[in-house]
């Protein structure tokens, strides 16, 4: 045990380890807050679909040789999130069908663009690191950490300020609209926030594993708590704990950061599921 503590103290001397922990905790917190709403609205797969959209946008940014792809990836992802959450209910193709079409097409087009306009000799390595996460979380700069902190703080503030509206929209949109609530504006807010979270989370776990940060903590919390507020708080605590544990295990064991965090979330869900079954929940 003392050897592990000494090893952690050794790694904490390096700024990139501290940056990874800060960003990981912030992204996990933001993902869990919106995850409860998306799971209850039956939009769990939107994280997976939008992450593929972000992958396609990143491919376009690499073709254009943009110095900072965030200015292209974030607007495109937000636009697609708005289409899925706000306009999807009024179209002929909606719900999981729209998410599936968008997910597959953007993933394929992104990979096609990266093949046609390859910017480096190791194309397969670039694609694999983007899809499943890479060491980018361990190469963050102070500016990137500051940007992530500002966006995360903004997301938390928006969630707190519009908590009652999100609660109403999550459970019954028709009743919320009948009471005078602007449902489309609330869905627009959800779309913008979840797109921002997904773009931030891609550096942590990769585009294929983003939905795990959104779904697993919410599902685990629902096995333990009953009210919307208690589920949200429990989901946030579980998500932060799993992200922190996963990053530490990854640093100590040398495993991929994204996959280790998802494995930790899966293990936590299994433990919570057993506890809930034994307690009769």
CATH class: Mainly Alpha
Could you say which structural class the secondary elements and strand pairing correspond to?
mainly alpha
Helix fraction, binned, reads over 70%
**Going by CATH, what is the homologous superfamily?**
ABC transporter involved in vitamin B12 uptake, BtuC
Structure description:
The protein has one domain: ABC transporter involved in vitamin B12 uptake, BtuC (Orthogonal Bundle). With 281 residues, it is an all-alpha fold. α2 (15-40) packs across α11 and α11 runs parallel beside α13. It starts with a helix and ends with a helix. The chain is built from 13 helices and no strands.
Can you summarize this structure?
The protein has 281 residues and is mainly α. The chain has helices spanning 2-11, 15-40, 46-63, 70-87, 96-116, 123-132, 142-161, 163-171, 173-178, 183-205, 210-224, 228-253, 257-278. The longest helix has 26 residues, at 15-40.
How are the SSEs ordered, and which strands pair?
Layout: H1 2-11, H2 15-40, H3 46-63, H4 70-87, H5 96-116, H6 123-132, H7 142-161, H8 163-171, H9 173-178, H10 183-205, H11 210-224, H12 228-253, H13 257-278
Helix pairs in contact: 2-7, 2-10, 2-11, 2-12, 3-4, 3-5, 3-10, 3-11, 4-10, 7-10, 11-12, 11-13, 12-13
Organism: Ruthenibacterium intestinale
Membrane topology: Multi-pass membrane protein
Main location: membrane
């Amino acid at each position: 045990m003392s050897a592990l503590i000494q090893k952690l103290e050794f790694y904490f001397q390096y700024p990139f380890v501290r940056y990874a922990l800060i960003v990981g905790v912030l992204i996990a917190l933001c993902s869990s807050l919106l995850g409860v709403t998306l799971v209850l609205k039956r939009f769990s797969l939107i994280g997976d679909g939008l992450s593929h959209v972000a992958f396609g946008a990143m491919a376009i940014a690499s073709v254009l040789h943009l110095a900072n792809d965030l200015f292209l990836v974030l607007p495109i992802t937000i636009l697609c999130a708005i289409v899925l959450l706000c306009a999807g209910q009024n179209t002929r193709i909606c719900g999981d069908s729209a998410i599936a079409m968008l997910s597959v097409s953007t993933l394929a087009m992104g990979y096609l663009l990266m093949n046609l306009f390859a910017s480096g000799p190791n194309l397969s390595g670039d694609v694999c690191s983007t899809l499943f996460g890479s060491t980018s979380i361990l190469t963050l700069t102070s500016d990137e950490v500051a940007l992530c902190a500002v966006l995360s703080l903004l997301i938390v503030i928006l969630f707190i300020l519009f908590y009652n509206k999100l609660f109403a929209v999550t459970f019954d949109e028709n009743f919320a609209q009948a009471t005078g609530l602007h449902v489309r504006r609330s869905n627009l807010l959800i779309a913008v926030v979840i797109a921002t979270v997904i773009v931030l989370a891609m550096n942590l776990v990769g585009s294929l594993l983003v939905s795990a940060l959104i779904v697993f903590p919410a599902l685990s919390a629902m096995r333990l708590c009953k009210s919307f507020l208690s589920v949200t708080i429990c989901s946030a605590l579980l998500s932060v704990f799993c992200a922190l544990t996963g990053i530490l295990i990854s640093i100590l064991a040398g495993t991929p950061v994204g996959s280790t965090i998802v494995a930790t979330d899966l293990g936590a869900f299994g433990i919570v599921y057993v506890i809930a079954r034994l307690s009769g929940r």
